[in-house]
Amino acid sequence: MGQVTLYLDPDTEERMKVAAKSAGVSQSRWVAELIRTRTATEWPESIAKLAGAWADLPSLEELRQSGQDMPREPL
After folding, report:
1. Is the pTM of this model over 0.85?
2. Pick from 36, 31, 34: which is nearest to 8 by CA?
């Protein structure tokens, strides 16, 4: 298992300590979970379950049949 040294300003360190204590985990575990979450390469299951949740949302094919693009916003 790798080790990392972090240098945190006092306010950030205190916020980390409070968050880890609130979550009921060690500071190391809290930071590791934050890194896992922020570097995830797949959608969370809660988001994936939303696929098809809106019955009135037009399908890709229906959108393509309209034949017109939406106007672009000026840059």
Report:
1. no
2. 31
